[in-house]
Write a sequence for this structure.
């Protein structure tokens, strides 16, 4: 039943928080399928449930109800340890504030996920170097984060996310802390990774950023209210005239 | 099967990685780490210094006893605490020389023995007189028991002893004080109202740090054959003996007790009218007391390690709270709870063990200072290997015990919350 190129499949997923006696439906019945090598932007106001969806897709959180399949594995009933392994091997996170460890240099930061994988110690350095080259940071690998610019920091974070060749790259407002020019550079990098075959899911509230994706999902009150290719989306498609859609 | 083989390897790798991380972390917060471990450092330093001082004291006393002779046995008459002889006359209780005849044949663990008695008197040689000289009545075996051979002249002969001849041995101090020849053999000295011919010089009494040998300050000795003195007043005497080795001291004591009870016609059930004391059993008792004392003292000072542990827990809690985002990130990139737990636990243990190491170095310094203080007789103070092992073991245990709570706290952090932490 599962088509081979479907990476993510959500079926009737609910995430309910209990605050006191109240039950808050952060996700209220979400159905979603994402195929390999898609580039998806998730948009919505704060409180729309997009962060909850990202946490769920990233296996940082579990659905209260429904079913989540990642690469054909049911993640709904996995143990904490199994989820940690999924995060390590199948998911790459990119955060708005980079989340680099200040005491480690670029190379060490990129190597971090390998510490928790079963990859041999001697292969780490090489893998990290390759990942850094992939994001266009071949030289400044011995620098610490505080010696690098915002764009360079985000590139390191992306290299870290890519090091285990994840099934999906999850980016949460990846350009939120960057100026316009640097943002464009990072989005250009995403475009290139997408062209190389990487599946990317990105949360953003900026239409200019979302326009880089090929598919726009809009959320409100824990539900998906629209799910359209970028040139058909009312906001991005109408204002940009499909100029960025290739 | 492959997984089973792999697991310990992975565990070792996790520990090694955590140790590297911990060292990085400690290095990054040098001042804080030093201040935090100060409690452990001082605790370990004081424990080891106390143990070193006590070990030094013990070593000193043991070396005294070694010089003194660990195979030595003392036997003296004593009123029993119960029975009809409790209030007996001293004539009943005292030893008689014939009670010791054939002792060596019946007590195979005893190497030799000497009846001894003592007095003090004025010694004169020519114009010179010295008061308060110890007069020891001995038999020739005494030299062997006391390890004080005759260095000039000869010991008492069989004839000297059996006839109770008026001969004597003196110690070199007395010879010099009396301004006698270097070789005084053949000279006559007067002890009290009796005149003796000097036949030899006995080696000087070795000096001890702790054992009091009955005389204070400068004192001189003159030795006469046991029988010479005994023939005069048939007074109270004691017996010194040596077992063939310290190991057979207990057998020697049993043989002597059995032999003397027979010779002194004690009925079965009747209490002993004498006391047999072996140095070996005294050494054992002393060792037990010393060990107990060391443990108690170490334990009391060890409490300061617990105080140090609380400091460690405090700083680890601060560290967890400071690094909340880092913990969140590590979890997001695939760290299991157990990996986070190990990381913080190892950090606490490494911190404590480093404290233990510095504490040992400081303790070694203190020990050196203690050893160099003159006149306290602790120049043999040293930190025994078991104390080094114990210090590290205890430090590691403090680390595990007090690091556990912060580590569990870190491991249980929710990654989403942690990444949102400011």
């Amino acid at each position: 039943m599962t088509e081979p190129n479907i990476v993510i499949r959500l079926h009737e997923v609910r995430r309910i928080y209990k605050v006191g006696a109240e039950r808050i439906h952060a996700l209220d019945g979400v159905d979603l399928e994402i195929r390999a090598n898609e580039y998806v932007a998730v948009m919505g106001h704060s409180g729309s449930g997009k962060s909850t969806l990202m946490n769920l897709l990233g296996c940082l959180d579990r659905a209260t109800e429904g079913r989540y399949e990642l690469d054909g594995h049911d993640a709904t009933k996995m143990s904490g340890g199994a989820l940690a392994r999924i995060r390590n091997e199948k998911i790459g996170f990119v955060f708005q504030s980079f989340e680099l460890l200040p005491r480690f240099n670029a190379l060490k930061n990129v190597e971090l996920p390998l510490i928790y994988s079963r990859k041999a110690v001697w292969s780490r350095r090489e893998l990290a170097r390759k990942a850094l080259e992939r994001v266009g940071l071949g030289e400044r690998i011995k620098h610490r984060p505080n010696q690098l610019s915002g764009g360079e920091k985000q590139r390191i974070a992306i290299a870290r996310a890519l090091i285990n060749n994840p099934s999906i790259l999850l980016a949460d407002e990846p350009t939120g802390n960057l100026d316009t020019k640097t943002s464009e550079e990072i989005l250009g990098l995403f475009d290139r990774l997408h062209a190389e075959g990487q599946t990317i899911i990105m949360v953003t509230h900026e239409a200019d950023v979302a326009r880089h994706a090929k598919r726009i999902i809009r959320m409100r009150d824990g539900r998906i209210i629209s799910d359209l290719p970028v040139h058909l989306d009312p906001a991005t498609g109408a204002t940009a005239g499909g100029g960025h859609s290739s | 099967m492959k997984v089973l083989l792999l697991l310990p390897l992975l565990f070792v790798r996790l520990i090694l990685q955590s140790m590297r991380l911990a060292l990085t972390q400690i290095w990054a917060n040098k001042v804080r780490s030093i201040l935090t471990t100060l409690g452990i450092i001082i605790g370990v330093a004081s424990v080891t210094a106390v143990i070193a001082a006590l070990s030094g004291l013990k070593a000193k006393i043991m070396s005294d006893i070694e010089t003194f002779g660990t195979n030595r046995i003392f036997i003296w008459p004593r009123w029993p605490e119960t029975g009809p002889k409790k209030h007996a006359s001293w004539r009943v209780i005292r030893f008689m020389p014939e009670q010791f005849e054939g002792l060596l044949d019946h007590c195979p663990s005893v190497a030799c023995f000497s009846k001894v008695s003592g007095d003090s008197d004025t010694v004169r040689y020519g114009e010179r007189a010295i008061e308060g000289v110890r007069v020891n009545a001995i038999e020739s075996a005494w030299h062997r028991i006391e390890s004080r051979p005759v260095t000039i002249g000869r010991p008492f002969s069989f004839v000297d002893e059996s006839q109770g001849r008026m001969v004597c041995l003196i110690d070199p101090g007395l010879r010099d004080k009396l301004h006698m020849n270097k070789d005084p053999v053949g000279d006559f000295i007067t002890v009290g109202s009796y005149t003796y011919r000097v036949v030899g010089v006995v080696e000087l009494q070795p000096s001890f740090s702790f054992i009091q040998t009955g005389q204070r300050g400068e004192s001189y000795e003159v030795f006469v054959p046991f029988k010479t003195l005994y023939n005069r007043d048939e007074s109270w005497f004691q017996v010194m003996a040596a077992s063939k080795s310290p190991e057979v001291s207990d057998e020697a004591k049993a043989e002597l007790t059995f032999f003397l009870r027979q010779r002194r016609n004690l009925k079965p059930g009747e209490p002993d009218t004498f006391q047999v004391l072996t140095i070996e059993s005294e050494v054992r008792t002393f060792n037990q007391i010393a060990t107990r004392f060391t443990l108690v003292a170490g334990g009391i000072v060890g409490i300061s390690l617990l105080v140090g542990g609380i400091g460690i827990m405090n700083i680890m809690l601060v560290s967890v709270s400071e690094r909340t985002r880092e913990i969140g990130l590590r979890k997001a990139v695939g760290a299991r709870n157990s990996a986070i737990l190990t990381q913080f636990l190892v950090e606490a243990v490494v911190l404590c063990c480093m404290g233990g190491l510095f504490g040992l170095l400081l303790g070694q310094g203190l020990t050196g200072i203690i050893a160099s203080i003159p006149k306290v007789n602790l120049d043999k103070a040293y930190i025994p290997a078991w104390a080094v092992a114990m210090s590290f073991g205890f430090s590691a245990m403090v680390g595990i015990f007090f690091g556990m709570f912060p580590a569990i706290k870190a491991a249980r952090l929710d990654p989403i919350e942690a990444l949102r932490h400011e």
About this structure: The CA atoms of residues 369 and 379 of chain B lie 9 Å apart. Residues 14-65+285-420 of chain B form one domain.
